[in-house]
Design a protein that fits this description.
Radius of gyration: 28 Å
Number of helices: 22
Number of strands: 28
Strand order of the largest sheet: 5-4-3-6-9-8-10
Shape: globular
Strand content: 15-25%
Helix content: 25-40%
Length: about 750
């Protein structure tokens, strides 16, 4: 392979011979391709698909965005088809294509796993394509992506031996026994995928191993559980054959529906998950059989217009997220419209939406995006320090944890919390601490609901026989700290019955070592009376806090065992269970765990930053201007005649019954606008309930529940969609999820 210096000399000759027009060193179009002007490296983009209508409309969208974004170099579709499929396939002209033998059904094992076609297709391209001999850098994308701006590997920071990739945080197998089983270098396993930008020499070394490791992990059925894998594997094994690490960037790509970081301009939209804008929503899985590429005039359902979003959302960053949502679907529709025109379809009738897609406004909104300075700085933090000027500020690593038990009651709460975690923009990973008896585990179905650490149940105390499930929270944290190695500097502790609305970070809420952050629990009156004096030597240091905790890892390691022991103490102190001492309206010691935390922290003189701006209970009136980060739906809340009480759903299996959901709250348009406090309170209550239903819908969709095409997302008006509110009338109406 020629050196970069030699190539930089040759590029001038190449430009002259090819007759390319270069202006100002920027990329210029030449037909359907964009070539690099003065850049000294050749780029080739790859993506893998199969012979299906489902991939054809994705191909049209990706190809259109490839041209629109002015991505340098050629692009090749790796098309995996069986001989039988090719006989009826209509989409050979949708993109520059290399046909690849299908490995969806593995030729040796018979395993059905279409995703293996991606590494198999790359191996085939390297062996059989002449274009692979004339390239320096390769960009690998997925078909369900929209390119928003040029992806230039060296501008992203890629080097030979150090590829750049998007972050796939759910690949938890990089942190556990799965990596140790399948790679000699588990410490180099990077949680990456979606976008890969790497030198051709690195790809030649990687591709065969990528394929073989995919085959290995598919055969390792014993470690398919979510707590080992995070459910999806293949590209996570990129570091196997070399002693260098991938540069990971989680600013380049965003899922529509997620909120972008402030100041970051994503250059890739990955529409792999359902997303919505108001009552409009889109899920790619609903269009698995669509003939939309070949039916003239057919487009996806038009989303709201940009001006409607300005009225819909006041928060600038959330509004940016909505704009990205509609940009994704509008770009897909624009690509389909141009494809239909190019293939001789009759000119469609005028409509407001078609007029918008052809307008200067839309062209301006979707012009090629460049990486922002903020994106570049955040990338460089992980690679090198600034040479001049003030050093770039780096943030500590965060890990979020929450405690549950093996029951349907905690499963639907887990689905809601984990779904909201991924939408919130919360940094780091999340772990469920699952406390179960051996007997419970034999029957338990919810292993795949979240990255999970399994904990022996202490609901029935092993020494005293006391039945107190709440003790599992501190007991699980002690177990997790003793059995899991984490590089996180701060731990965020939540309860399962919470919905995240935004990131909870130590730097924003001023947490520090020796100074945790929490939310007020004013009803813990025992901090002011004989209870504190009995159970801590520093009663003056007892803070009435709980719910959300942000704590330095070293403080948590000091506190965890004390938290557990103080919980046991208060639980055993039955003489002080009365309401006038504890504030417990049931006078049954049920809030002993909360006191265990406060008394343990007091014993260590850990004084809290107490924030009123993190958590709100649905049904409470919000303080104007406060952007609460968490709903805690621990109490019943109402909107008019509608109400929600989590306790009423203790024994209902919402997760494993296809399309089950909670009763829909009222439509926001039906609310009384005469009282601003009541209006804002009710809007938050509706948001909380809708978030739970959207999480359930997304989970059932991922589980491929039957009848998907006939059902709609919970944000739409769907009177025929079954819910658990009708379960007692028609117990046979819901179907079990295909787990």
């Amino acid at each position: 392979m020629a050196t970069g210096k030699f190539l930089s000399l040759l590029v001038l000759v190449v430009v002259v011979v090819a007759g390319l027009s270069v202006s100002g060193g920027r990329a210029q179009k030449s037909g359907n391709e964009v070539v690099v002007g003065t850049a000294p490296y050749r780029i080739h983009t790859l993506f893998s698909v199969e012979c299906q209508n489902y991939f054809d409309w994705q191909t049209v969208g990706l190809m259109h965005s490839f041209r629109k974004a002015q991505q340098p170099g050629p692009i090749t579709r790796l098309l995996s088809c069986t001989e039988e499929e090719k006989k009826t396939y209509k989409g050979m002209d949708l993109a520059p294509t290399l046909e690849v033998p299908s490995m969806s059904r593995h030729p040796k094992t018979g395993d059905w796993y279409p995703a293996i076609n991606k590494p198999a297709g790359v191996v085939h391209w390297l062996k059989h394509s002449k274009e692979a001999e004339n390239v320096d850098w390769v960009v690998i994308l997925d078909a369900d992506m929209i390119i928003r701006g040029p992806i230039i590997p060296w501008e992203l920071g890629a080097e030979k031996g150090r590829p750049v990739a998007a972050y796939y945080g759910y690949l938890v197998g990089c942190d556990n026994v799965l990596a140790k089983l399948h790679t000699k270098h588990p410490e180099l396993c990077d949680k990456v995928g979606g976008l890969l930008a790497m030198h051709i020499d690195d790809l030649r070394a990687l591709a065969p191993m990528w394929l073989s490791k995919t085959e290995e992990v598919r055969e390792d059925r014993a470690h398919w559980a979510t707590n080992y894998t995070g459910d999806i594997y293949g590209t996570g094994w990129i570091s196997e054959m070399w002693d260098f690490a991938t540069k990971i960037n989680d600013n380049l790509m965003i899922y529509p529906g997620y909120i972008p970081r402030e100041g970051v301009e994503p250059i890739l939209l990955h529409y792999g998950l359902p997303f919505s804008v108001g009552n409009w929503s889109f899920s790619k899985l609903e269009h698995h059989e669509d003939n939309i590429v070949y039916d003239c005039g057919q487009l996806f359902l038009e989303p709201p217009y940009p001006r409607e979003l300005k009225e819909m959302e006041g928060d600038p960053n959330k509004r940016r997220a909505l704009f990205l949502n509609i940009e994704c679907i509008n770009t897909l529709n624009e690509g389909l419209l141009l494809h239909h025109t190019a293939h001789g379809c009759p000119k469609p009738k005028w409509s407001k939406y078609l007029s918008f897609l052809r307008s200067k406004t839309f062209a301006e909104l979707t012009k090629p995006k460049q990486l922002t300075p903020r994106s570049r700085q955040m990338m460089e933090v992980d690679v090198q320090k600034q040479d001049v000027g003030e050093p770039e500020k780096s943030y500590p690593k965060i890990h979020t944890i929450f405690s549950t038990e093996c029951s349907p009651y905690f499963d639907w709460q887990t689905v809601g919390l984990v779904h909201s975690f991924h939408l919130s923009g919360q940094p780091g990973n999340i772990t469920r601490l699952l406390s179960c008896t051996e007997e419970d585990l034999k029957q338990y179905k919810g292993h795949d609901l979240a990255p999970t650490h399994y904990v022996p149940s202490m609901s029935r105390h092993p020494l005293t026989g006391d039945w107190y499930p709440a003790i599992n929270k501190p007991a699980a944290i002690v177990h997790w700290l003793n059995h899991v190695k984490t590089d996180a500097e701060y731990i965020v502790i939540l309860d399962a019955d919470m919905i995240m609305r935004g990131p909870i970070t130590p730097w924003e809420f001023n947490a520090a070592k020796g100074r945790p952050v929490s939310t007020p629990y004013d009803y813990l009156i025992g901090c002011d009376n004989v209870l504190a004096k009995t159970h801590t030597s520093h009663p003056d240091a007892c803070d009435k806090v709980g719910g959300v905790i942000i704590m330095h890892i070293m403080d948590l390691k000091r506190l965890a065992l004390l938290w557990l022991h103080k919980t046991e103490e208060v639980r055993a102190d039955m003489g002080h269970w009365s309401r006038n001492i504890t504030g417990d309206i049931y006078e049954a010691g049920w809030i002993s765990e909360m006191y265990g935390y406060s008394f343990g922290a007091a014993e260590l003189n850990l004084r809290h930053v107490i924030s009123n701006e993190i958590l709100i209970y649905p049904g409470y009136v919000p303080v104007p201007g406060v952007k609460y980060r968490v709903f805690h739906y621990g109490l019943e809340f109402r909107v008019g005649n509608w109400s929600f009480d989590k306790a009423k759903w203790r024994h209902m299996d919402v997760v494993n019954k296809c399309w089950a959901k909670f009763p829909d709250p009222p439509d926001p348009s039906s609310l009384d606008h005469s009282n601003e406090d009541s209006l804002q309170r009710d809007l938050l209550s509706i948001e909380c309930a809708n978030s739970l239903n959207e999480a359930l819908y997304s989970y059932h969709e991922r589980k491929k529940c039957p009848g998907l095409n006939s059902l709609s997302a919970p944000t739409r008006k769907t009177p025929d969609t079954p819910s658990l509110s009708t379960l007692t009338k028609s117990p046979g109406i819901l179907l079990p999820c295909p787990l």
